[in-house]
Specification:
By secondary structure, the chain is an alpha/beta fold. Helices cover about 45% and strands about 10% of the residues.
Amino acid sequence: MARCSDKEKAEEEENYDGPETKSTKGERHVSFPPDEMMVSGFAEYTDRHVDSCLTLTEVSLAYRRSCDRHQVEPRVCILEQLKMGTCVRGRMKRLDLGGERLDLGSCEALEVVLKSLCFDFINLRAARLEENGASSLLDMISYYESTAYLDLSDNTHVGTSAWRALAHLIKQSVCLSRLDLCSVSMVAYGARTLSKALQTSHLAVLHLDNSQLSGTPLFSLVGALKSNRALLELHLSNNMLNSYQDAMQLGDLLRYNHTLQTLVLSDNAIADAGLEEVCEGLRLQTGGLKVLLLKNNQITAHGMLHLAKALPVLKTLEVLDMGNNSLGNRGLQTLKEALMANRSLLHLGVACTQITCEGAVVLAEYLAESPQIKQLDLQGNAVRLGGLMALCLALRINLSLATLDLDGTPNQEQDEFLVQTQKRLRSEIGELCLANGSRAAVATETAESPPGEPPEGPVEDVVS
């Protein structure tokens, strides 16, 4: 088959409208491209707001007959799920096909299932989909609005026609809210096709971890998402994102998109220089971003200078995780005043950041001043007696922290008195956090109680 030029592919994508459709007043039909024999015949459109007229037993029998027509063996895992599953108003929780090898015939045989049932989640991770089978299956999912969450991760042979079908699904579906494409290489055509579809999609959550997004693919993605007002979560872990062009693109994304609520950048190479670009965008976030994960990004204490400029002006950021970076005590000292000035942060992650007792004292000073922080992750740091004492004293003042994650007593501690003292301090820290959590739960319950009605539970519990 002759290889299409980029221009021809772009024209194909522009003119692609999904499966061939024919419509008359009162009814709709669908057929798939006859040259690939993707689906034989026509299928009646199913209104997803009407109860399914088929029981799971009837769907199972119909699936067996469909397999006979397509000359493939019925998948045992599908029959088991239909047998053991629960169907409510034509909907099941999940269809799990992860790890199954789905060739073209197996995909075509699934049409009767996708036509008869809706799923909260369809798992096609590592299903070893081939181009024609993937294209056929995605067209069915699009036409029948079969799922709210689709996982296509670890399918390495997604070809041109499958990308077009996926783009059509993303653009047209009003049901699909989450898509996982982890470990699916974003070559030039795939990145362009996906990016164009995201301009008009209803997707709320997109996972693109380990998808080789560095460079031009990220440029295409950010270009689409600058104007996107639907996406709430973007996961870009392990994409080799660098501290230069990639970080500039991420900064632009934060500068122009104020709808995104979660941005996951863990396991990349943003570094201090890249963090500066990201923080430039952060400082313009008047609303939107609530979760920022920067774990394992080669960030050092110097990078905290840039973050310290952004934190005080952020009004919505609730979760900040910088674990597995070389922040050290100096990095926390640089960040302390900015943390105190911020009044939105609820979860701070600094696990495995080379913190000792000195850094723990800095965090204790922050806890004593923070009225809203609820969770602090300090695992993987050398916090011993002095740091534990400071944290314990701070928690006698702090009334919000409900979770403080710490390692157990270090094995290298030899002195029995020090071991017992550390255990006692950890126990007291746990009790103080528990009391804060209980107090917050009572406050929430009281706030949610109708006016004039007392909260549930004994009065003594509320007073204490």
